[in-house]
Amino acid sequence: MTTAFWTAWTQRHRFSKGGRFEKYYFLFENIESVFFAPAVVTAAGPHVRDHLDVKRFMFLVIVALLPHYAFGIFNVGYQSHLASGRPLDFWPMIGVGIQAVVPMVVVTYAVGYFWEALFATVRKHEISEGLFVTCALFPLTLPPTQPLWQVALGISFGVVIGKEIFGGTGRNFLNPALTGRAFLYFAYPAQTSGDAVWTVLAAGRAAPVDAFTGATPLAVAQAVESGSIVQAWSEAGYGLPTLFFGLYPDSIGASCTLLCILGALFLITVGVADYRIICGDILGFLAAGTLLNLVASPTASPYLGLNPFYHLMLGGAAFGIAYMTTDPVSAPALTGARWVYGFMIGMLTVVIRVFNPAFPEGIGIVILFMNCFAPLLDEIQLKARLRKRIPNVR
175: Cβ–Cβ under 8 A, 6 or more apart, which residues? Predict the structure, then answer.
């Protein structure tokens, strides 16, 4: 036992029930369990062991998100220099990205931790590790120009309204990070949507240079009234490699399809994400896109004839599939229900993108919508299983 751990352990009585700092137990327990070891462990066998506990579960998700932050910092700086007409030098671009992204992350964790600590104090329970994943996901879904006070409001809404009022982690039926993101989308649309919010412009420049539109690939696709969407992307500088690697104006860290694929494979391998939901998502995207291709006529909107695979690469689709739909709390618990849940998310996302210009992204709203139906899907499968059982013989 190290000296540091022994010092922390010997202070436990001061924060435990009846101690001088009893009301701050949540803070002591949080620091002790994160940096040292959980206080409550199994003393002796035999006992059932699982390869995952809650802390390790949450830690692995954060590990999977770290490459997205690295990419987000680079892409924010890259898009800023590109729009401002500056040289595309690596370290200056990284500096711009850090200045935009790090303050948002700090505000998110500070405000989110405040609310979690407040509810833990009132309810006299430990701080939930789910907060760290919520706060890690939330900034990645935001545009890099989001004002910090709105970031604080968004994470407050996500943590308090999306989770705590239902009893905390494990009892919420909505994804807290997406709940906060949706709140900002509807409460402050001018700072959360449109072409101007996705790029950090250099000081003194009020608008992008003439050769730079700032429109996302989803916005370009919706603006095409005739002709080929792929051709419109090509003219805007969005070739297939650009779409796949996410090097275009978008939310901070949700546009890189490659990182989302690697993250999903990692989470499936370590047992955090369920492949059924992810495969259901992909099948839903492909089924809806293929169906729209079949009904598309030469005079129909070009969006109906878009290759279904493009829908998987656009915007935050891959990010939502890998990290949002697989949330173990807000997703269904039964295996069959998870297939249906994922399939419906993919189908509805494509439908909303094509037919509702008010929601060019689509997947965030759809995930929250299907969160509401997750308990019903579990109930349907559970009743179907019970009907197949042999009745008791009397």
Answer: 162, 324, 327, 329, 330, 367, 368, 371
CA distances from 379 to 293, 386, 391, 394 (A): 34, 11, 20, 28
**In a 10 Å sphere around its CB, with 0-12 CB exposed, 13-18 middle and 19+ buried, how is residue 3 labelled?**
exposed
HSE toward the beta carbon, residue 83, CA cutoff 13 A: 27
Domain boundaries defined on the chain: 54-198, 217-248+256-383
Which amino acid type is present at position 10?
Answer: T
- State the residue for tokens 């509702």: 356
DSSP 169: T
Per DSSP, the three-state class of 22 is: helix
Q: What span, in angstroms and rounded, lies between the C-alpha atoms of 197 and 218?
A: 14
pLDDT digits (tens, 9 = 90+) for 182-234: 999 999 999 998 888 889 886 645 444 444 456 789 989 888 888 889 999 99
DSSP 124-148: T-PPPTHHHHHHHHHHHTS-TT--H
CA dist., res. 161 & res. 173, Å (int):
11
Let me know the angle formed at the C-alpha of 99 by 93 and 100, rounded to the nearest 5 degrees: 95
Rounded to whole angstroms, what are the CA distances from 279 to 45, 216, 238, 287, 351? Answer: 38, 26, 27, 12, 18
DSSP letters for 308-363:
HHHHHHSTTHHHIIIIITT-TTTS-SSHHHHHHHHHHHHHHHHHHHHH-TT-SS-H
Contact predicate 221/314, CB 8 Å: yes
- Per DSSP, which regions of 76-210 are E strands? none
List pLDDT tens digits, range 305-350.
999 999 999 989 999 999 999 998 899 999 999 999 999 999 999 9
- Furthest-apart CA atoms within the chain: distance in Å: 85
> Which residues 6+ apart lie within 8 Å of 46 measured at CB?
none
